[in-house]
Queue: 2 jobs
Job 1
Amino acid sequence: MTARRFGARPPLARLLLLASRWFDEQSRAELERRGWPKLSAAQTAVFAHLSDFPVPPAELARRLGNTRQATSDLVQGLIRLGLLEMLDDPARRGGRLVCVTQRGVRLAQDGYVVLLKLEEQLADAEVVKQLHTLLAGLPAVATGPSKSQDP
């Protein structure tokens, strides 16, 4: 995507995508230096879409924008690493829930610290604070991915 193709000002979506990839690459490398397993970008995305509460695999797939099979493969890999676990869903017979293990919580906490340190490396702390406030206020960020389709 060059300036010739799109004009002098690149689309905000492209800048956000590039920034997201930079943060993800840097944080994964730092977490690996800290002794955590080498994770893929897809695996770290799982943590971005989990909360403090267990979630059904189909809902996690929807949040990720993945198929259920692709999400199942990601979850199984993270289970093998001891970062996630699958629990029985007490509300649904035969239902399952994806849950972060204590080890996974420690990884997420360490990842949070790493991301904050990366933010500190950026040139202007006030600009970073303003950007954070602006982006947090976007409807797409506040509500998460669209519910238009369930994979």
Note: The first helix runs from residue 3 to 6.
Job 2
Amino acid sequence: MLIADAQPQDEAAWRRLWAGYNTFYETEVGADITARTWARILDPSVPIIGRIARRGEEPVGFSNSVLHEGTWVANPVCYLEDLFVDPACRGGGIGRALIADLVRMGKERGWSSLYWHTRQDNPARRLYDSFVAADDFVRYRMDL
């Protein structure tokens, strides 16, 4: 398996996986936002990191992360916003490899932390718990 930065030629595969991710979370992201997200992933001036996992030549998963400043730390913080593995490929270590990839990058680049959140009933929590225990924070979200 190979994990690397998203490249322009990955767009069709990323969009296929992105659609699966949105289906999993029972949501719809408009075509304009999807196009904007993809453009930002490819733009080196935007602090979004798009990584693609491949088995052979086939993209089978992705992670989208946002690097940002923090008020309690000196070094950047990485928020793993989206993680998805093709359902036909689950159970083969791809999700673990995508998270480990970010951990490695963070250590190499001096990030202060990596964090993510998920639904309470997400079956992937077994994987997430193998990296770190969930904390006791509660998320509040307000659409503006």
Note: The chain has four helices and five strands.
